[in-house]
Amino acid sequence: MVEELLGALAGVAAAGAVYVAAAARVVKQYERGVVLRLGRLAGEVRPPGFTLIVPIVDRLHKVNMQIVTLPVPAQEGITRDNVTVRVDAVVYFKVIDPASALIKVEDYKYAVSQMAQTSLRSIIGKSDLDDLLSNREKLNQGLELMIDSPAIGWGVQVDRVEIKDVSLPESMKRSMARQAEADRERRARIINADAELQASRKLAEAAHQMEDTPSALQLRLLQTVMAVAAEKNSTLVLPIPVELLRFLERGGEEHEGQPPRRYAADAVESSADNGEPQAVEPPAEREIEPPPEREVERTIEDIIEDASGK
After folding, report:
1. For the Band domain, which residue ranges apply (predicted)?
2. Euclidean distance between CA atoms 194 and 183, whole angstroms
3. Burial per residue of 196-206, b for 16 or more beta-carbon CB atoms within 10 angstroms, e otherwise
4. Calpha distance 189→182 (Å, rounded)
């Protein structure tokens, strides 16, 4: 009798062990368990840890609750300003409702991937090329809203969307490079012109200052000569002031071209010879005609030769 009782207990224990082995499930920390009993959702979502189900009757589906990184294949499209580009992105999302993610959509990862590709093409068509290159934060936010709106009904939440790369045709890259180069050249010319304007104003102030003190011009001339001579050059250029050349020109013209003037004493003597006093009139000033250019150049060259000979 005792042996039969022990045998029965051993059989029950064996059956219980087999049942527990068939019904026992372990849900990991980053997972949640959804039980379908005879094809229908049964009870609440099972938390992480050890759990039991009814063998043969229940089916436990584990849903990953981690953030999923989903790369979006490169999509080719035409922007609003008629430029062909290829844009790829990456989507970060996670499941917030395991039951909806399992029941309401067949494959939520594939669904999110297709929605991301469609939204990316739509964003390309609605945006300009400059926005794709420089205003990506705004485009990322718009793309995130476009993907997240239908994904909420699937029990999925989109955390972030990032546009990774924008590929342009080679011709467009060359055009943009030329445009950037032209813009930099324009700014360089403007800066040079501004510098020339400021320098001309300072030079004008210096010229007015030197006009008040002529000795400053001579000092500046000597400084220039010293700066040129300090370089150990074989040729020394000595500038001659323009005022000196003009003075020498006037002296040469008076010496060579004008007849001698009659003064008041000569007029008095001529009147005495005639016996009648006459009023003495000052000689009229004659307008001196400038000599031809050839004679002026010859006069300047003769003066320079005489000065060098002496």
Report:
1. 22-180
2. 17
3. eeeeeeeeeee
4. 11
Tokens of 165: 């790369």
* DSSP code of residue 69: E
* Residue 46: DSSP 8-state: B
Looking at the chain, how many residues does it have? 310
How far apart, in whole angstroms, are the C-alpha atoms of residue 84 and residue 125? 10
Residue 54 tokens read as 């009814």
Quote the CA–CA distance of 281 and 39 in Å, as a whole number: 140
Angle at Cα 195 formed by Cα 190 and Cα 201, nearest 5°? 130
Minimal CA–CA distance to 307: which of 238, 257, 256? 238
What is the per-residue pLDDT across 237-267, written as a single tens digit (0 to 9) for each?
Answer: 666 666 666 767 776 666 555 554 444 444 4
Residue 150's identity, in one-letter code, is: P
Q: Rounded to an integer, what distance in angstroms lies between the CA atom of residue 140 and that of residue 160?
A: 8
Q: Is 82 left (phi over 0), alpha (psi -120 to 50) or beta?
A: left
Give kind and range of the element (H or E) at residue 303: helix 293-309
Q: What share of the chain is helix, strand, coil (3-state, %, to 5)?
A: 55, 20, 25
Round to whole Å and give the CA distance between 81 and 241.
64
pLDDT tens for 269-290 read: 444 444 444 444 444 444 445 5
Is 0.70 surpassed by the pTM of this model? Answer: no
Q: How far is CA 61 from the centre of its chain?
A: 53
In the three-class reduction of DSSP (H, G, I as helix; E, B as strand; rest coil), residue 277 is classed as: coil
**Tokens standing for residue 211:** 């006009």
List the structure tokens of 90.
């990456």
Cα 78 to Cα 56: distance, rounded to the nearest angstrom? 55
> Model confidence over 227-237: pLDDT tens digits?
777 666 666 66
231 sits in which H/E element: none
Q: In what order do the strands lie in the sheet with 68-78?
A: 68-78, 84-95, 156-167
Buried b / exposed e across 43-65, counting CB within 10 Å, b at 16+?
A: eeebeeeeeebeeeebebbbbeb
